[in-house]
Amino acid sequence: MRENGDAVVEVLDLIKDYRPGFGLRRKRILHGVSFSVQRGEIYGFVGPNGAGKTTTLKALMGLIQASGGQARILGCDVSENDFREHIGFLPENPYFYGYLTAREILDFYARLSGLDGQRRCRRVPELLEWVGLGEASESRLRTFSKGMLQRVGIAQALVHDPEVVFLDEPMSGLDPIGRKEIRDVILRLKSEGKTVFMNTHILSDVETICDRVAIIVEGRIRYEGRIEDFLHEDDLMSDVVLSYLPPELGEILEAKFGARVRGVGGRIELRVREKQVSQLLRLGLEAGAEVVSVTPHRVSLEKIFLEAVSTSSSHLIRNESARKGERS
Ligand SMILES: Nc1ncnc2c1ncn2[C@@H]1O[C@H](COP(=O)(O)OP(=O)(O)O)[C@@H](O)[C@H]1O
Ligand SMILES: [Mg+2]
Fold it and tell me: Per the domain annotation, does 318 fall within a domain?
């Protein structure tokens, strides 16, 4: 297999047209999408509902044929088969037979992946432990919560120990605990050197675990890169918490730094530009204040995301109605 540097997924000018119905005009869903995923990273493919995330992933998995452009995984064109044993896939709404137990369903998928009896006996319990379902391995899936089912789905994608894992909306519809459990599983995959590609519309999850993101809106990539790279130096802010601050100093600091001052239980919290932190600390310490903490404030991905989406207001309206119709 030929690979270009350390890119395990390379997508170049991908186009997908659909004909909504017989006699109707073709509709372009993907307008020349390009991005690449490097080995060992967690890559977030982010966008509102209907942006084209699942369509892109289906084209990568070879489930649909693109109308134009190129997509390669591990150096192979996605129409080839050589790379398939090295990738795992969690579809958007996986369906599992409720009367099977977690162990039975994983054993079934392991058979499909061609693992012999001996390897299955080792791999299935190991995987169930790995995704935190060891204790529930003999319970029927119909008794599982959505978070547990999603972990079964991830385990299913991992039976054959793939190098690259593709997940379509792995956290969608989960409560905060369920989301954290999935995040931990994804971070563990990364720590084992796997590459993870993840479709999602949940920005907070992207911010906490992804190394790089692409933002797709209406079938076009609006941003690609590290979250930090989107920000200008001027946007980098820090939250400084001081205590024992002489009352008049608060006002001075507010005036001097244009800082947003917030009193919290005898302490004072200021948000200032990162480059002003040393000067602020010097002033505070000289006036007898104590430094409680200095925390970099991460400008939310939401800001970048909203900017990318808001360039098309018609899209926002469509997205809103799509969200209303979304199943929880
Ligand atoms: N088989 C299909 N035929 C026609 N249109 C489709 C088909 N599949 C998806 N679409 C349209 O493509 C757009 C992108 O869908 P999708 O890739 O599922 O978005 P996302 O996963 O980002 O929410 C949507 O407008 C959807 O209606
Ligand atoms: Mg989707």
Answer: no
Last residue of a domain, one of 177, 207, 230: 230
How confident is the model over 43-71, as a mean pLDDT? 95
> Which of 24, 33, 49, 55 maximizes ligand 1 atoms within 8 Å of its Cβ, making it the mutation to test the pocket?
55
Closest ligand relative to 53 C-alpha: 1
136 and 240, same domain (yes or no): no
- Percent of residues, the chain, with pLDDT higher than 70: 87
Phi-psi region of 219 (alpha: psi -120 to 50; beta: other; left: phi over 0): left
**Does the structure show a pLDDT above 80 at 316?**
no
Q: Whose CA is nearest to atom 8 of ligand 1?
A: 55
Q: Is residue 204 part of a domain?
A: yes
pLDDT in tens, 272-302: 888 889 998 998 899 888 899 998 776 667 7
- For the question of whether the overall pTM of this predicted structure is more than 0.70, the answer is yes
Strand order in the sheet with 164-168: 87-90, 164-168, 195-200, 42-46, 212-217, 220-225
Residues 255, 278 share a domain: yes
274 lies in which domain range?
233-297
- Residue owning the nearest CA to atom 13 of ligand 1: 50
Mutate to test the pocket of ligand 1, among 54, 167, 323 (most ligand atoms within 8 A of CB): 54
